[in-house]
Design a protein that fits this description.
The complex is a heterodimer of chains A (182) and B (274). Chain A is mainly alpha-helical and 182 residues long. Chain A is built from ten helices and no strands. In chain A, helix 1 runs antiparallel to helix 7 and helix 8 crosses helix 9. The N terminus and C terminus of chain A are likely disordered. Helix content of chain B is 45%, strand content 10%. Chain B is built from 13 helices and eight strands. In chain B, helix 3 packs across helix 4. Chain B is globular and about 55 Å long. Classes of the chains: A mainly alpha (182), B alpha/beta (274). The interface between A and B is large, with 59 and 65 residues.
């Protein structure tokens, strides 16, 4: 499919146009080094080079509706290996922000729900609390049963704790005199 | 040496043993860590994913707090390190001057600390074969991570050699663990973790060494369902500070080890290191 069926062009924010104009995605010659090194490309609808290709074709709307922009974990394998120095993670961040601004239903609601849950805890506690973020996320996606045994194991090992109820730092086990030599 | 210490949120939770071992090791090496007063979350990957302004403002707030102390910053978490360095470089390009932000691994693995550690080792980890796993953000982007090589970084390997362990060459050094997809898409992360652990096993490693709470957590928690064919090999993964602590003879090791879902006890006992 070479021609977009969706109208594109004038509905984008000035921020998007400005930010995309400062990245050099136009220099991409599709060597696909980015997609070959991308750890999550197999799970994406459009692998990284294809997202860039969408932009070159002016099909920004398709890029905004893609699942790929939400699956990207910003590991920088793509941009580090790009012979044309295209900052793909930066472009992806720009597209995500624009998709949210346009209130486009994200193609991957779970990823967005996770990030929102994480920031929900940061907003309330100034610091992230993993257990609280996990619980908020599990509630949002209505999936309270998976990972229960894993969660209990982590609680037992003190990796997760309920200390946020008290508003304090997570409880530490009594530290053995770590500084003393054997 | 004196640093402002920015632990980061994970070190109060899943990576508790990283925090404790980092503090203990630094104390043993006469590095003074002063925890940054009133630090807030760096935003991790979530902030810049949803809101670019928030993604730069959260680390910038911490940098402003830290600049008042006049000390360089020591950061153990690879994600925090990345976000703080990005914010710092943004500030530097606008003409401001700030203190240095350094990853704890770089502080310990660069001279003069490397020689100091070598001289202070009392239990060399002789015979222990480790695969050093750097992950993404400790290696990339090269300019921001301040790394020797983005494809084959060596600092952690040098540090492991300094404490007597054998660090193996392997292919997974800078591969991604799947990071924050661990909750929304566990099956993607399980695939990546399996690849990493299989590569480390193939290289003959006894365990993996990491410098990132997210990597460590994923390696432990996303090995796939027990009994399934896709289950990853059982390899423990430890933070580099824990192994340095063990070699320096610090008592805390047993305590740190108990935080891990995959206990390294058997592996270390087999090598007569416990």
């Amino acid at each position: 499919m070479l021609v977009s069926t969706k109208p594109s062009g004038f509905t984008f924010s000035t921020q998007l146009v400005h930010k995309l104009a400062t990245t050099n995605f136009g220099r991409c010659f599709e060597c696909q080094k980015c997609s070959n090194g991308c750890p999550v490309a197999p799970a994406m609808d459009y692998p990284p080079h294809a997202v860039i290709h969408l932009l070159k074709l002016g099909r920004i709307d398709d890029a905004l509706h893609s699942q790929a922009i939400w699956l990207c974990v910003s590991c920088y394998a793509c941009s580090e290996r790009c012979p044309n120095d295209t900052s793909i993670p930066q472009i992806v961040d720009t597209l995500r922000e624009e998709a949210l601004r346009q209130k486009i239903t994200p193609a991957d609601k779970k990823v967005v729900a996770f990030h929102q849950s994480f920031l929900w805890t940061v907003k309330r506690l100034r610091r992230a609390n993993e257990l609280l973020a996990i619980l908020v996320y599990k509630w949002r996606v209505r999936d309270l049963t998976s990972d229960i045994s894993l969660g209990l194991k982590m609680l037992k090992r003190g990796q997760l704790s309920f200390s946020f109820w008290k508003g304090g730092k997570p409880k530490r086990p009594p530290t053995t005199s770590a500084e003393e030599s054997r | 040496m004196k640093f402002t210490y920015y632990p980061g949120c994970s070190l109060e939770g899943t990576a508790r043993s990283y925090d404790e071992s980092a503090r203990a090791v630094c104390q043993a090496l006469d590095i003074t860590l002063i925890e940054l007063d009133g630090w807030v979350c760096c935003g991790s990957s979530s902030a810049h994913t949803l809101d670019e302004h928030l993604g730069s403002e959260l680390p910038a707030h911490n940098l402003r707090l830290a600049s008042a102390t006049g000390l360089d910053m020591a950061v153990p978490c690879a994600m925090c390190y990345h976000r703080l360095r990005v914010a710092q470089m943004g500030h530097a390009s606008s003409g401001g001057e700030l203190m240095a932000v350094r990853h704890l691994l770089h502080i310990l693995a660069d001279e003069p600390m490397l020689t100091t550690i070598k001289n202070r080792v009392i239990h060399p980890l002789q015979g222990l074969k480790v695969a050093c796993y750097y992950g993404c953000l400790l290696a990339r982007p090269a300019k921001i991570a301040d790394v020797d090589s983005p494809e084959n970084p060596m600092r952690m390997d040098y540090l492991m050699e300094a404490i007597g362990a054998t660090s193996l060459p392997w292919s997974g050094k800078v591969e991604c663990c799947g990071a924050s997809l661990s909750l929304p898409h566990p099956q993607v992360v399980e695939g990546l973790v399996k690849r990493l652990l299989s590569m480390a096993e193939e290289a003959g490693a006894d365990l993996l060494v990491t410098a990132c709470p997210m990597c460590q957590s994923n390696l432990e928690t996303r090995r796939g369902k027990s009994g399934s064919q896709d289950r990853s090999p059982l390899l423990p993964s430890l933070f580099f500070t824990e192994l340095v602590g063990l070699s320096l003879g610090l008592y805390g090791f047993a305590n740190w080890m108990s935080c891990h879902l995959i206990s390294p006890q058997k592996t270390l006992e087999a090598r007569k290191l416990l």
